[in-house]
Specification:
By secondary structure, the protein is an alpha+beta fold. It folds into two domains: 103 residues; 124 residues, no CATH class. It contains two helices and 18 strands. The strands form six sheets. Strands 5, 6, 9, 13, 14, 15 and 16 form a seven-stranded antiparallel sheet that branches. Strands 10-11-12 form a three-stranded antiparallel sheet, with no helix packed on it. Strands 1-2 form a two-stranded antiparallel sheet. A hairpin with a 7-residue loop joins strand 1 and strand 2. Helix 1 runs antiparallel to helix 2.
Length: 238
């Protein structure tokens, strides 16, 4: 295969990956706290011995959007939304994880947990407990939870020191191997949830563009294959 074929194949591979990312965004457009994802392409250029330089594009990194999602009032006692920067900190079987999905509940032992059963952590990294007899639950903007005027704890609100360290796990969880820092300016809203920050219309429009670009690349590969086959046939018949 000639250089043009290899270049087109790397482009096709990147377009296929982007199509998968777009499809995942659209599928999670109604997932609470979902962060839209994009694909970052890089270009590798090398000088050839003869003729023009060779350029090859690769899809090398995922870009996670931190745009604010729409906030919806739910009235749920254990529903929380973050307005501004930051993530809730939760404890999973694989370690601490970050999430913007604040649709929590309580376990049989009174721990505040996610719908998957992961414990929600406070500002100091400890589990939060809500007594079964707690009434008149109130949450202030800094995440302090109180019942009957008595403070119970404070929701932890953190962010990675470097957002490029974020790695998606599932639809609403993220992990990072870097440092976590407290968020000072984020605000927690009680009885609200944050919707996914996905614009389905724009995602569908981009999907159409990617599909057309992929079909164009495939047409080139098909034509190149026919050209080489005809050349080999002519050579063997000569």
């Amino acid at each position: 295969m000639e250089a043009a074929g290899y270049t087109t194949l790397t482009r096709q591979s990147g377009l296929l990956k982007e199509m998968q990312v777009l499809a995942n965004n659209i599928a999670n457009a109604s997932t609470t706290g979902y962060r839209q994802e994009g694909l970052v392409f890089s270009e590798y250029v090398v000088r050839t011995r003869e003729g023009p330089s060779l350029s090859m594009a690769r899809a090398t990194a995922h870009n996670i959007s931190m745009a604010q999602g729409a906030l919806t009032a739910t009235g749920g006692t254990f529903d929380f939304a973050i307005e501004g920067e930051g993530f809730f900190l939760v404890q999973t079987g694989e370690g601490e994880r970050l999430t913007r999905a604040g649709n929590f509940t309580t376990s049989a032992t009174g721990e505040l947990v996610t719908l998957d059963g992961h414990r929600v952590l406070d500002a100091g990294g400890a589990p939060l407990f809500i007594p079964p007899d707690a009434t008149d639950l109130n949450v202030s903007g800094d995440g302090t939870i109180s019942a009957g005027g008595r403070p119970l704890g404070q929701l932890g609100l953190v962010t990675p020191a470097d957002r490029l360290d974020l790695v998606r796990e599932g639809s609403a969880l993220f992990r990072t191997d870097g440092e976590l820092v407290p968020v000072e300016e984020g605000r927690i809203l009680h009885r609200f949830l944050e919707n996914a920050n996905v614009d389905p219309v724009l995602q569908f429009a981009r999907m159409v563009e990617v599909q057309r670009a992929y079909e164009l690349g495939q047409s080139f590969l098909d034509a190149e294959n026919d050209r080489m086959r005809d050349a080999l046939r002519a050579f063997t018949q000569s």
